[in-house]
Write a structure and sequence with these properties.
D-Amino Acid Oxidase, Chain A, domain 2; alpha/beta; 8-stranded mixed β-sheet; 6-stranded mixed β-sheet; binds glycine; binds flavin-adenine dinucleotide
Length: 387
C-alpha cells in the first residue's frame, strides 16, 4: 500500500480534496471538516447529490441484500447499519434538515412454495451471519401489511432493515459539510493534479486546489476522472437502475413497510410517495426509461400489492450504481501516493455511507488502514502485486 500521508506530514490535520459530491464524498468531507481538516469538494453538476445518491431507494438493507460470498461486505454493512440511528440524528442536528430515517422494518414476500423455500434458505444464510428475521405466515404478514396480495404464501420480517430518504440525506450532507467549514465547488469538473508519482491536489476548471490527500468519490464515473494514468483508474462501471414513484394518500398509505416482492421492492415515504424499484442493467450510461423496464416493475409491484393500480404515477427515473468487478466497494489507498478511493458501493452506497465516512476519515487522520475496510482495498483488482 502507498502512503496516505505525504512524507513530511505534520501533526496538524491534512488538507483534503474530494472529487464527487454524492453521499460518499459529502459524508467524508463532513467528517473531515468536523475533525479540523481544510476540505475542498468538487462536484461537476450544478447541485450536489444528483447522481446515484438521488436515484436510490434509500433502503438500509444489510440483511435482505446480503448474498453468499459477500461475508466481508455483510460485516461492513452490519456495522454501518448500527451507525445509522446516531448518524441520522447527528446529521439532522448539524444541518438543521430532516433525513427521513424510518425504522418500520422490511417484509420479504414469497408468493409460491418455491419462493418460500428459497426465502427460508436465504434467511438461514443471513441468520448464520447474525441477521435477525421473523418468519411470518401469510396471515401474520397480511395483518402487518393488509395491502399484500391474497396469493401470499409466507414472508420474512427484518426488523433491522430500515430506510432513509436518500434525497433529503444528500441535501442535509451538503449543508452539514458547508456548516462545518467545508469548501464546496459545483458546476465544474475536477481533474487529479499529479506531480510525478504523487497526487498533490485537484484542478477544477482553471484553478489548482493543492491538498495533502486527494479522494476519488466520483461514483460510477470514478474510472473516468481526468488526470488519472490508465493503470490507476478505479475499475468502476455503471449498473443502470430504473425506478418509479407512485403517489399514495399520505393519510391512508397503502404500504407502511419496505416490501420486497418477487422481482421488485416497494419503499413508502412519509410524504406519500411509494417508490418501486429497480431494474439492474448493463447498458453503460444510457439514461433511457424503457417501456419494458417500467412494465416489469409495475407488473411485479401489482402482483405484490394489487391496490397500486389505483395510484397515480408521480415520477420515473434512472440512475447508475457504481459497480466494481466483485460488486463490493473500493476503499483506501491506491498505487499513487496521496490518492485514495471511496467508490464502487454498487447497491449499498446509502447503507454504507456512515461506515465509509468513519473508516475513510480515520484512515486520512491516522495514515493507517482501519481493519474494518482492509479487505476492500483496490489492490485486490491489480494484476501485478505491488512491490
Ligand atoms: P454518486 O451519488 O453517483 O455521486 C458521484 C458524484 O461524482 C456525482 O454527483 C458526479 O456528478 C460526480 N462526479 C463524477 N465525476 C466527477 C468529476 N470528474 N468532477 C467532479 N464531480 C464528478 N443504495 C442503498 O444503500 N440502498 C438503496 O436502496 C439503493 N437503491 C438504489 C437504487 C438505484 C436505482 C440506484 C441507481 C442505486 C441505489 N443504491 C442504493 C446505490 C447507491 O445509490 C449508490 O451506491 C450511492 O449513491 C453511491 O454514492 P456515490 O457518492 O459514490 O455516487
Ligand atoms: N439497493 C437497491 C438497488 O440497488 O436497487
Amino acid at each position: 500500500m502507498q502512503n496516505a500521508h505525504p512524507p513530511n506530514s505534520s501533526a496538524s490535520p491534512p488538507s483534503v480534496a474530494i472529487v464527487g459530491g454524492g453521499v460518499i464524498g459529502l459524508s467524508l468531507g463532513w467528517r473531515l471538516a468536523q475533525a479540523g481538516c481544510r476540505v475542498t469538494l468538487v462536484e461537476r453538476n450544478p447541485e450536489t447529490g444528483r447522481g446515484a445518491s438521488w436515484a436510490a431507494a434509500g433502503m438500509l438493507a444489510a440483511g435482505i441484500e446480503a448474498e453468499p460470498t459477500e461475508e466481508p461486505l455483510f460485516a461492513l454493512a452490519r456495522w454501518s447499519q448500527s451507525l445509522w440511528p446516531g448518524f441520522a440524528a447527528e446529521l439532522e442536528a448539524a444541518s438543521g434538515l430532516p433525513v427521513g430515517y424510518d425504522a418500520t422494518g422490511t417484509l420479504v414476500c414469497a408468493f409460491t412454495r418455491d419462493q418460500a423455500e428459497k426465502l427460508r434458505h436465504g434467511i438461514a444464510f443471513q441468520r448464520g451471519l447474525g441477521g435477525v428475521f421473523d418468519w411470518l405466515s401469510a396471515a401474520a404478514a397480511r395483518a402487518r401489511e393488509p395491502g399484500l396480495a391474497p396469493s401470499l404464501v409466507a414472508a420474512a420480517f427484518s426488523p433491522n432493515d430500515h430506510q432513509v430518504d436518500n434525497r433529503l440525506l444528500a441535501t442535509a450532507l451538503a449543508e452539514a459539510f458547508r456548516r462545518a467549514g467545508g469548501h464546496l465547488i459545483t458546476g465544474v469538473e475536477a481533474a487529479i493534479d499529479l506531480a510525478g508519482a504523487r497526487a498533490v491536489g485537484i484542478v477544477a476548471g482553471e484553478t489548482r486546489h493543492p491538498a495533502d490527500i486527494v479522494v476519488i468519490a466520483a461514483g460510477a464515473w470514478s474510472r473516468a476522472v481526468p488526470g488519472l494514468p490508465a493503470a490507476h483508474r478505479p475499475p468502476t462501471r455503471p449498473i443502470k437502475g430504473q425506478m418509479l414513484a407512485l403517489r399514495m394518500p399520505p393519510t391512508a398509505p397503502l404500504v407502511r413497510h419496505v416490501v420486497w416482492g418477487g422481482h421488485c421492492y416497494l419503499v413508502p415515504r412519509a410524504d406519500g410517495r411509494l417508490l418501486v424499484g429497480a431494474t439492474v442493467e448493463e447498458r453503460g450510461f444510457d439514461p433511457a426509461i424503457t417501456a419494458g423496464g417500467l412494465l416489469g416493475l409495475l407488473d411485479d409491484a401489482w402482483r405484490t400489492v394489487p391496490g397500486i393500480e389505483e395510484l397515480p404515477i408521480d415520477e420515473t427515473w434512472a440512475g447508475f450504481r457504481p459497480g466494481s468487478p466483485d460488486d463490493q466497494p473500493m476503499l483506501g489507498a491506491t498505487g499513487i501516493d496521496g490518492l485514495l478511493v471511496a467508490t464502487g458501493h454498487h447497491r449499498n452506497g446509502i447503507l454504507l455511507t456512515p461506515a465509509t465516512a468513519a473508516a475513510m476519515a480515520e484512515m486520512i487522520l491516522t495514515g493507517r488502514t482501519p481493519d474494518r475496510i482492509r479487505s476492500f482495498g483496490i489492490a485486490r483488482f491489480e494484476k501485478e502485486p505491488r512491490p
